[in-house]
Amino acid sequence: MTPSFTTNDLIFTLIRVSILPEIILTLSLIAIIVIDLLDSDREKNTILLYKIFIISMSISTGVLLFQWQFPNIFENSHTSSFTNIFRFFLLIRSFLSVLLSADYILCSKMALAESLSFELSAGLAGMVLSFANDLITIYVSLEFLALSSCFLSGYTKLDIRSNEASMKFLLMSGASSSLLLYGFSSLYGLSGGQLQLDATVAGITLNKYVSTIYLSAASITTGTAFKLSLFPFHQWTPDVYEGSPTPVVAFFSVTSKVAAPASFTRLFGLIFPYLSNEWHIAVGLLAAFSMILGNLIAVTQRSVKRMLAYPSISQIGYIMIGVLAADSENGYASMITYTFIYILMNLGTFARIIPFGLRTGTDNIRDYAGLYMKDPVLTFSPVLRSPSLGGIPPPSGFFGKLYLFWHGWKAGSYPSVPVALVTSVISIYYYLKIIRLMFTGKNGRSDTPITSRQNSLVSPSISISKSSLEIAMIIRVLASTLSGIFIDPIIEITRNTFF
Fold first, then answer.
1. 472, HSE (Cβ side, Cα atoms, 13 Å)
2. Which of 29, 101, 120, 335 is the most exposed place for a label (fewest CB within 10 A)?
3. Domain ranges of the chain
4. What is the dihedral of CA 497, 330, 294, 172, to 10 degrees?
5. How far apart are the first and last CA of the chain?
6. For residue range 319-373, what is the model confidence (pLDDT) as tens digits?
7. Burial class (CB in 10 A: 0-12, 13-18, 19+), 336
8. Three-class DSSP labels, 222-288
């Protein structure tokens, strides 16, 4: 009986290692790369690589959920309920994103291994960023996430728009990283060479280096605003969204809303507590202008991907309201709850756009006219989800925004919450415009059935499989709807989360 007890005890101890989910994903990343290198038959390996990714994601998620119930074996571990929630969100995001992109990659005859590798790398970087507690780890993980995203945006190498999007992303990411690094280096020098966040703030003398500390805070705010696509540092977002492959756009739209706010909250909450009024005012203004600009410009867009790029700018403004609330009981809980609902809503929206783009080769909004007569399943998804994104009751988006705005108001975000309410009403217009076109519009370009027109990247000899995307679409519709019905248990889970 002794060997059995020892083995079980060893397994139990191993599971409690705080970074075990990241270790599992790293091993799966290595396995995918090695298998792809050793076997040249990529079509044969597609199912194997896909299974490796799904299994590793499932195991990592299970381990992470188990660690919530038991403390980690390392006392100096910096994981907490706050960081574990965002790590869980990133795992869910990676799992759903790959389900969306698998058919797209196969139909466009691109290699699946590279896509899975970049997805895993970005997911790993985001998870590390969520619990990073020193300046070097924060910077390296943020750059790793940015580079993986850059490679994904240029994934369709034969498409000149994808190449352009990748170059713009790389240049803007480099500019924002330089500002962020300048702010970190200033903190490193002012604190006497400290890297840990708590040691950094303890080593800074506010009265002695006031101007330098303000300059450092401004640099970090600007660099982070680039990553978050906050106004006026959002200029790269619409162009990158429009040029990137649609599954990659789905990846962009969610990842930055999960990893960056988690890091931003920890960074400013720990390092600049004595400048809380100043950075709250600055970030509040950025969030308000992001909500205004994102929703107003989205009304004028003709491309679906550009139209979704501007709401993503406004959505990060909504999430910032929860960050500014800075209340571990309800403020952070409202931000986390809305982020979870947004993941389901937004990925579900792209589950509709991806098959439509594959079958028609277009992302123009007017080409959605009359879609109800051609493909009722594609129409079913936006009818339930678009009102949720706009905040129309009773879907989950309404309850998420109501909870977020209410606690933002109670926390004193008086300018931001009225702006959020007004701009949410504006967003209803362009979401319902697409639904109206689907049912009442007439497409003047062609009466050809939707399945006959092919994207230039798709081989006509390949029949596009609808089953996985449509199943994924239905799952996301149900999840984003039911999350509104069961929002109270979700809120209870997210309460009392602090970093």
1. 27
2. 29
3. 274-445+463-498
4. -20
5. 41
6. 888 888 766 566 677 788 888 888 877 777 777 777 777 777 677 777 777 777 7
7. buried
8. HHHHHHHCCCCCCCHHHHHHHHCCHHHHHHHHHHHHHHHHHHHHHHHHHHCHHHHHHHHHHHHHHHH
Residues 6+ apart with CB under 8 A from 174: none
Phi, then psi, of 303 in degrees rounded to 5: -90, 135
| Closest CA relative to residue 317, chosen from 284, 349, 345, 278 | 284
Q: Cβ distance 284 to 415 under 8 Å?
A: yes
Provide Rg for the chain, Cα atoms: 23
Residue given tokens 């594959």 in the structure block: 358
d(CA 381, CA 17): 40
Q: What angle do CA 79, 325, 263 make, to 5 degrees?
A: 35
- 258-296 burial: b if 16+ Cβ within 10 Å, else e: bbbbbbbbbbbbebbeebeeebbebbbebbbbbbbbbbe
Cβ(445)–Cβ(370) below 8 Å: no
Count of positions (residues) in the chain? 499
Does pTM top 0.85 for this prediction? no
Per-residue pLDDT of 410-457, as tens digits, reads 877 778 888 988 988 888 888 888 778 777 766 544 444 433 333 333
Cβ atoms within 10 Å, residue 490 = 20
What's the token pair of residue 408?
A: 């933002």
Cα 194 from chain centre: 31
**What is the token pair recorded at 70?**
């038991």
By three-state DSSP, how is residue 56 classified?
Answer: helix
DSSP character at residue 460: T
